[in-house]
Amino acid sequence: MAPPIASSVSVELTKIQANGVRAAIHQWTTANLISETLSSELLSTIQIKEPSFNYEKFAKYSFRLAILCLAVAVVSLLADNAFLKLIKRIIALHPFLRSALTALLAIAVHVWGHNRSLQTPGEVYLNEAIHSLGSLLFALAGLQLAEGLDVSKAEHQHRVHYVLFLLSVIYFGAGLAAKSAFIWSCGMIALGTSFGAVTGYISGWGAYYLGMSYPFRFVFFGLSIIGLAYLMAGFELTSPLWSTTRIWGLLYFFIALWILSIFGNDDLFSDSNHTTYRGRGHGRLFIWSLMFFGAASVSMWHGLRYADGTTKGFGLTFLGINLYTKFFELFWDQWYKPLFFAVLAGTLAIIGRYAELVWNLQIVSSGSVKN
Predict the structure, then answer these.
(1) CA Rg value for the chain
(2) HSE on the CB side for 318, CA within 13 Å?
(3) Backbone phi, then psi, for 243, in 5-degree steps?
(4) Helix-then-strand count for the chain, H and E
């Protein structure tokens, strides 16, 4: 026989956690695994924690908003006449010198942020905001460097991807040092832009490279980033940022597939054997829509199978985007517009109604457990 539970014992749980525990106790009691007395004693120990204000998220978004406001302040300052005179003097300096001075200032800001993270590790979001300011300065240094390399001229445009790649390396280094998903994301954006620029230059700034359009190239780029993310998960240094890396890989991958499902990759079907296929209008895009649908379905299956909210969310989101994109493509020109939007509204209402029913069932089930 189980010993009685002390009346002073209590467990503080959130409302959702408490509902789960109550459901488990109810099932154990129904299955005669525990007695009614023990069930009552266990239920009496559950204390619901009152929901508190989420100061963590408030601090995080406050500092990010502060960085955004600072950027607006800098832009506004540039319009001031007195400041413009100072800017003209600075602009008179050689672009390489301006870039070096800005980069040194960015390094100083990052060093300051790193020292603060060692001295006050609890001020996570303030330290991240300081590193974000350093990243902003590095972006400014990159612009000055691009000006010094004279990338505006056609014969020097290939130098753009060198600047972008250098920026991505800097962002990755700063992101690792600060363990900042925001700075790491800046690196992912710079790396993706660099990839587009370098393949564009190699192809002579044409639409296709090795028979692949820009979206098709980014399908493989996204898959590579996803693979890299899983490698990062196995190392202590990079494991805190592997999830952010995977999210960016999935984003590149699915957006590229979505664009392919709309426009296709015609160079793959440019030979005479595919003349009939190319002439079928929307039919020639079917293979890309099918691939998009399959990728979203696999992502959703992975999320459900392994309780992975990220892949499940991407799968559901882009599965819906795929279906509604096809709906617009097939019926926008053929259907009477009021009917088109009425059907669109109806499908969204059905989805919303289904979600509401599931939500209400969850409330009813949790309420019955309480009773």
Answers:
(1) 28
(2) 29
(3) -65, -40
(4) 14, 4
Angle between helices 242-263 and 286-305 (to 10 degrees): 150
Longest dimension (CA), the chain: 87
Please state, in angstroms and rounded to a whole number, the distance separating the CA atoms of residues 95 and 147. 6
Bridge-based pairing state of the strands 46-48 and 11-13 = parallel
State the amino acid at position 143 in one-letter form. Answer: L
| Under 8 Å between Cβ of 185 and 216 | no
Name the 3-class secondary structure at 1: coil
Query: pLDDT tens track of the chain, all 371 residues?
Result: 455 555 556 777 777 777 788 888 888 888 888 888 888 888 888 877 766 666 667 676 777 677 777 777 766 665 665 655 666 666 666 677 877 888 888 888 878 887 887 888 777 777 777 877 888 888 878 877 777 776 666 666 667 777 888 888 888 988 887 788 888 998 999 899 888 888 877 776 666 666 677 788 889 999 999 999 999 998 988 898 999 999 999 999 999 998 888 877 765 444 444 443 444 445 567 788 888 888 988 998 998 888 888 888 898 888 888 877 777 766 666 776 677 667 767 776 776 676 667 666 656 555 544 44
Close Cβ partners of 169 (under 8 Å, ≥ 6 residues apart): 187
Supply the pTM of this predicted model.
0.64
